[in-house]
Amino acid sequence: MNWIVLAISISFSSVGLFLLWRMERLKSFNKSLPSKVSIIIPARNESKRISPLLQSIQSQTSLIHEYIVVDDHSTDGTATLAKSLGAKVVSAPPLPKGWFGKPWACYQGAKFATGDVLMFLDADVKILPQGMEAIIYEFNKDRTPLSIQPYHMMKKGYESLSLFFNLIVMMTTGLFTPLGSKMNASSFFGPCQIMSKEDYWKVDGHAVAKHAVLEDMVLGEALRKVTGKNIRARAGRGVIVFRMYGEGLRALIEGWTKNFATGARLTPTWLLVLISLWMTGMFTALLSGLAPFMWQDQTYLIGYLFVGLTTWLLSRKVGNFSPLVMVLFPIQLIFFLWLFVRSSIRSNQKKVTWKGRELDL
């Protein structure tokens, strides 16, 4: 019996390796770059986070036409800071009924932009040296809408609680499986998006996602349907990074609560099945320790170490996670389960809180 349980935990948890089999890095080639790229950064009380992004853009301004910060009624000096770092600052009009803050801010920035290519960046990202060149080159391959998920750079221990959320965000695309080259993207990552202005306005921009918690996925689906073009999603390691929820554990909980249950409902069924098998394998390895027979022949230890090692190998694909993940992954796994349940309950209540605003779902 113990070896049967071990075989189940190892085979199921190995599905994670299939889901993130290969994540190629974007390459930088300075040729055939679009001449007028407008960067749009929605910002609400981002004075403690936005400086690294604006400084990284400043160092690569020869590749862009303009960078615009849309101040979404900040009270912490975000607009003043952005101006001091060379950004054009647009004050978002009062939030109209039926709109969420981020889509409204992005929409206002797009109306103000004068470039023929629009790049939307979250305030917590940072473009690495030669990163802008790599992003624009990748977009320019066929000029279809492109999104890039940044590499997660952490500074404090609690930030590693985002581990399984980061992994699943990448897994839900299906693009990083061995079948990825034959698939079209089903996800459109929010932190970094780039598209032609023509394509953006064909779908009426962020107005199509004005009341969506995951406005990125709704916008991506509209772009795919209306323009007839495939949307693309890439991993940003070596090109673009972010530090998620550096303000503290409360911000991390609120952020993932807002996003995660909704995102699960938008994921293709076959990917949800594979992700569920992967997590079942990990929980089997973890909970089998409650059975006395699993301690015979060190069976439980074998399963635990296998899951720990594969989890750490996967974690390195999405962020600078510590090797301690091999031992401490149960903490992150249990936190994920708790927060996913919390997110599901909140979404059923049709209300979440984010950045001082209560959002009706």
What does this structure look like?
About 45% of the residues lie in helices and about 15% in strands. The chain has a 7-stranded mixed beta sheet with strand order 3-2-1-4-8-6-9, with helices on both faces. Strands 5-10-7 form a 3-stranded mixed beta sheet. It has 13 helices and 12 strands. It has 2 domains: about 1-20 and about 265-360, no CATH class; about 35-250, Spore Coat Polysaccharide Biosynthesis Protein SpsA, Chain A (Alpha-Beta Complex), CATH 3.90.550. About 50% of the residues are buried. It has helices spanning about 1-15, 15-20, 50-60, 80-85, 100-110, 130-140, 165-170, 195-200, 215-225, 250-265, 270-285, 300-320, 325-350, and strands spanning about 35-45, 65-70, 90, 115-120, 125, 145-150, 150, 190-195, 230-235, 240, 350-355, 355-360. Helix 1 runs antiparallel to helix 11 (about 270-285), helix 1 runs parallel beside helix 12 and helix 12 (about 300-320) crosses helix 13. A hairpin with a 2-residue loop joins strand 11 (about 350-355) and strand 12 (about 355-360). The termini are far apart. The protein is an alpha/beta fold.
Mean pLDDT: 89
- Biggest pleated sheet: 7 strands, mixed
Task: Quickly count the domains.
Answer: 2
H and E string: HHEHEHEHEEHEEHEHHEEHHHHEE
Terminal Cα span: 47 Å
* Unreliable parts: none
Task: Look at the structure and give the CATH class of the largest domain.
Answer: Alpha Beta
Shape: elongated
Which fold does the CATH topology of the largest domain refer to?
A: Spore Coat Polysaccharide Biosynthesis Protein SpsA, Chain A
| Percent range of helical residues | 40-55%
Helical/strand content category? alpha/beta
Number of helices: 13
The largest beta-sheet arranges its strands as 3-2-1-4-8-6-9
Fourth-tier CATH superfamily name of the largest domain: Spore Coat Polysaccharide Biosynthesis Protein SpsA, Chain A
Q: How many β-strands, per DSSP?
A: 12
**What's the architecture of the largest domain in CATH terms?**
Alpha-Beta Complex
Taking all Cα atoms into account, the compactness measure Rg is: 21 Å
Strand content: 5-15%
